UniProtKB/TrEMBL annotation:
It holds the Pfam family AMP-binding_C. This is Acyl-CoA synthetase. GO terms for molecular function: medium-chain fatty acid-CoA ligase activity. SUPFAM superfamilies: Acetyl-CoA synthetase-like. One of its GO terms (biological process) is fatty acid metabolic process. CDD domains: MCS. Transmembrane segments: none annotated. It comes from Amycolatopsis rifamycinica. Residues 392-466 form the AMP-binding enzyme C-terminal domain. PANTHER family: ACYL-COA SYNTHETASE, ACYL-COA SYNTHETASE FAMILY MEMBER 3.
Length: 474
């Protein structure tokens, strides 16, 4: 029989597993309630209305115990996207927090409220390692969202590789406030602590006060996205309580998008802590990370995780071995998804032999640390014969005192091929375009300076804090 995905859940323990505000469940509690729900679930897939609550965690664990693929749904989902996901995944029912109003698009689907109490009973037998565990839908930036089928094997491989990279143990208590319909918040942030036999405290909604409270009361790890760490960076210098709490953390981890170097520097200056970045995708789960016991290099996502093979590939399909030369990241390993649901064409197109084409462009330094320069489609700018990554220009712009937020894109130019466009949220009086161009040219190189500067009140971001660059050009 396969090894259990959650050994502590099977063995039983009176130790706290999950805490969401006033709702807390021990491992024994969770085994009883999720085990009971698991025995009631139909075969086939189940949708989970993924509010940031203990109920969502119970529902997903129950589905995993039952061997039934769970389809997490973003509670802010639009009508068209919801209709597409339901038609594509055909769930047998929807699991939801009691009392939560569901949209009209779910009216035809049977509803089962998620309980928080149950009777102890033997848990179902562990499903096969290749059995689908979750179907997580992509953001759909290039068409309708695709259902990424993640097997149990991929979950276990990624979480165990992070145990190795981060020294993650049952003694760790994780705090975060990430949404639970995505890989970062759900798989890493909820299932990760449960696989280790540790604990997670979810804030429900992010606040620096909540982070400080939990890190001052025994929490050892913090997961966040750059928008959260930007807030922390802005407050830690003047808030001694927050800074002292952060100093007590064993590990601060940022993911889902690049953390600007300027924010790295501000957090380190205030707390002495160096934030760890990692890199993953829905299709691959986690690929690389800065190791807890390794050198912390701001602006990099570290080295390949245990079991993950990574290569950079050039435009002509050649493998790039040169230091600091840009190539597309391709990966293979036990962390990869099985397929795109109902899309054999898209699945086949996503692979180069056994290597998954990530669409992310990167360089590697002499120590093997990976530095992502951006998405092939939106962040690699070909200007004047140069390949330029948007990320390094964004980092340079953020070092200017007049810039609060920055995004960089390319747009067609008859002379250059593409010209560099900077989208700026100023921190006060907007700095002149020429001043920003000179600032970048001094820090990087003249050909990397923005040719156009556009000012905004805010950058468009998705639920994970990523800047939606396609919306900038619209």
């Amino acid at each position: 029989m396969p090894d259990p995905l959650f050994p502590t859940l099977v063995a039983g323990a009176a130790k706290e597993a999950l805490r969401f505000g006033d709702h807390a469940l021990t491992y024994d509690d969770l085994a009883a309630v999720a085990g009971g729900l698991a025995r009631e679930l139909p075969s086939g897939r189940v949708a989970v209305w993924a509010t940031p609550t203990v109920h969502t965690s119970v529902a997903v664990v129950a589905a995993l115990l039952a061997g039934v693929p769970a389809v997490p749904l973003n509670p802010k989902i639009g009508e068209r996207e919801l209709a597409h996901i339901l038609a594509d995944s055909a769930p047998a029912l929807v699991l939801a927090e009691p009392g939560v109003e569901l949209p009209a698009g779910l009216a035809a689907l049977p509803r089962r409220d998620i309980p928080l109490t149950g009777e102890s009973a033997p848990l179902p037998e562990e499903p096969d390692a290749e059995a689908p565990a979750l179907i997580v839908y992509t953001s759909g930036t290039t068409g309708p969202p695709k259902g990424v089928v993640l097997p149990r094997r991929a979950l276990a491989a990624t979480l165990d590789a992070l145990e190795d990279a981060w020294g993650w143990t049952a003694a760790d208590i994780l705090v975060h406030a990430l949404p639970l319909f995505h890989v970062h918040g759900l798989i890493l942030g909820i299932l990760g602590p449960l696989r280790r036999g540790g604990s997670v405290r979810h804030l429900g909604r992010f606040s620096t006060e909540g982070v400080a409270r939990e890190l001052s009361n025994g929490a050892t790890m913090l997961f966040g996205v750059p928008t959260m760490y930007h807030r922390i960076a802005g407050e830690a210098g003047s808030d001694s309580g927050l800074a002292d709490a952060l100093k007590q953390a064993r590990l601060l981890v940022s993911g889902s998008a690049a953390l600007p170097v300027h924010d790295h520097q501000r957090i380190t200056a205030a707390t002495g802590q160096r934030v760890v970045e990692r890199y993953g995708m829905t299709e691959t789960l986690m690929n690389t990370s800065v190791r807890a016991d390794g050198e912390r290099k701001p602006g990099t996502v570290g080295v390949p995780l245990r079991g993950v093979e990574l290569r950079l590939v050039g435009d002509a399909g050649e493998v790039v071995d040169d230091v600091e030369t840009v190539g597309e990241i391709q990966v293979r390993g036990p962390n990869l998804f099985t397929e795109y649901l109902n899309r054999p064409d898209a699945t086949a197109a996503a692979f180069d032999g056994g290597w998954f084409r990530t669409g992310d462009m990167a360089t590697r330094d002499a120590d093997g640390y990976v530095k992502i320069v951006g998405r092939k489609a939106t962040d690699l700018i070909k200007s004047g014969g140069y390949k330029i990554g948007a990320g390094e220009i964004e980092n340079a712009l953020l070092e200017h005192p007049g810039v609060a937020e920055a995004a960089v894109t390319g747009e067609p130019d008859d002379d250059l091929g593409e010209r560099i466009v900077a989208w700026i949220v100023p921190s006060g009086e907007p700095p002149a375009a020429g001043e920003l161009a000179d600032h970048v040219a001094k820090l990087l190189a003249p050909h990397k300076r923005p040719r156009v500067v556009r000012y905004l009140d805010a950058l468009p971001r998705n639920d994970m804090g990523k800047v939606m660059k396609r919306a900038l050009g619209a």
